[in-house]
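Supplementary Note 2. Why include the ligand at all?

Several targets in our set were suspected to adopt different conformations when bound, so apo predictions alone were not considered sufficient. For every target with a known small-molecule partner we therefore ran a joint prediction. The input for D-xylitol-5-phosphate is given below.
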Amino acid sequence: MLVSPSILSADFANLQRDVEMLNRSAADLIHIDVMDGVFVPNISFGFPVIKAVQKYAAKPLDVHLMIVNPQNYISQVRDCGAEIMNVHQEACVHLDRTVQAIKNAGMKVAVTLNPSTPVMMLEDVIAELDMVLLMSVNPGFGGQKFIPNTINKIGRLKELIEKSGSHAVIEVDGGVNADTGRLLADAGADILVAGNYVFAANDPMKAIETLKAL
Ligand code: DX5
Ligand code: ZN
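The joint prediction is reproduced in token form.
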């Protein structure tokens, strides 16, 4: 299992310390949640903060944009050193064009689906994707409760990926802990995002190892 801890739940007044903890940990990626107050009902942080994280991060950045018009920010995301750029299907009218533009900018491309968006919405673009991010909460806040339907959705997404010959991996985001992580691992998730479970733990490095071992 790969693990991508979300710095949304980090201590923003000690971001360098928390990023350096992730560098020392078993984490595979660092998940970065950008919220614009329009696509989701909350605002998190923007490019200056991502650049500050990049300065200290020794792991690839997994940037999740919960914003409208993500196609307008592709070069800025690349200049922040992102390895993977995640855009929401619901935020992209011309999703194929945006996917191609992200690839042309030299990043891995991921498309994110809200809990209510069926996996079939990706049928005609899945072959182009490096990753699909399934939201297992309605995006906007850390520390929410896992939506169990995500488990069935992973099965449907796996079928779609296999049918199309896509090499896309499956990442899941929201309400992940040791229990929901176990169900997700059994269902076939490749990467788990975890914010609250990691950063509210007494021992965040151990929490990451627990998810890694699922
Ligand atoms: C939700 C964000 C998540 C969030 C996960 O809007 O996209 O990445 O930080 O947080 P937890 O793991 O606390 O649900
Ligand atoms: Zn996220």
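The mean pLDDT is 98. The chain is about 35% helix and 20% strand. Comparable summaries for the other entries are listed in the accompanying table.
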